[in-house]
Input
Amino acid sequence: MGKGDKKTKRGKINRGTFGARRPRIKKKPSIETKIDISKKATVK
Output
């Protein structure tokens, strides 16, 4: 279990691959996309 092992996290880092042991980090949606800027408050 080390750098050469395909099934370990260290082995995945060494090979530069992803899998169950080292999933890709998904980017969180930015605040601008959550809040729709085009909608403005209307005066009653």
